[in-house]
Prior knowledge:
Structural class: alpha/beta
Order of helices and strands: EEEHEHHEHHHEHHHEHEE
Number of domains: 1
Amino acid sequence: MKKPIPFINDAVQTRDFKYYIFDWDDNILHMPTKIKMEHLEDDGTWKPVEVSTGTFALVRADTKHYRAPGGDWSKAFTNFEDAPDTTHFIEDTVTALEKIEHGETPGPSYQALKKTLREGRLFAIVTARGHSPQTLERAVRVFIKYALSEEERAEMMSNIRGYRAWLGGATEVDFGSDVEELDRYLAKCRYSAVTYAGFKQRMQDDPIYHEKLATATTAAKPELAKEFAIRDFVEHVFHILRRLGKTDRAISIGFSDDDKGNVKCVSNYIRSELSKRFDAIKFVVYDTSDRTIPKGRKVCVSGQMNLPGF
């Protein structure tokens, strides 16, 4: 039986290059995962409590009233790490998406990720969690299954094939099944959980960040890790485009995060380093910490751009 000819969207050739970096928790989805902490009671004892990521962003600096269990931060985020025979992150992602189906408001960058996937654009997930890249990619696949309609998934596949035909020279006979093409597309994206052991080792092995980590405070290290992950994605995108001889076209990269500390850190990093090293790339950062602003607040721009979907 002759293989059906897939629909290939050749119109992607007219697009500029826009890529996206997303924090996950409370930016894309309001996850039910809880952080284990202790709260100082009126009688002077510390009582175990579990807080949401949104609450944690507010109380983490209140060291007078909140602390990690027994002061050990390695015990606070056990729900945010991979463990043998557990799929907490995937299950929590399904739960968060099901709540949206029942009317709960999604994270401010939920629609932006949907648009990114529909258009077949490269993206990165950068999160403070401790999951492997494979686990984060699985969560994106769950997002595709639940958040995109059948028509939107078809649009995504036509765009993915369109980019591969345009930038990779693929023809109709070269394309595999939807599963194979989706695998190829998602493999080109980046998934960085900055407290994952493998990620921390890569950061330690980098000569620049090895030196930065040596002098950083404990509080500053997660922000440095996000810097490292962002640099990794920017380099990844730039090297792909340079290899294809496409760096003469407008390139822009957007980053969104609901943590004000991360937003400030990344904004400063873009101004002081990334925008100078990659002066042909336009950058924008969105602060999505205020839930009353549906798509977040633009706080830092390098170059002139306006990212649709944010």
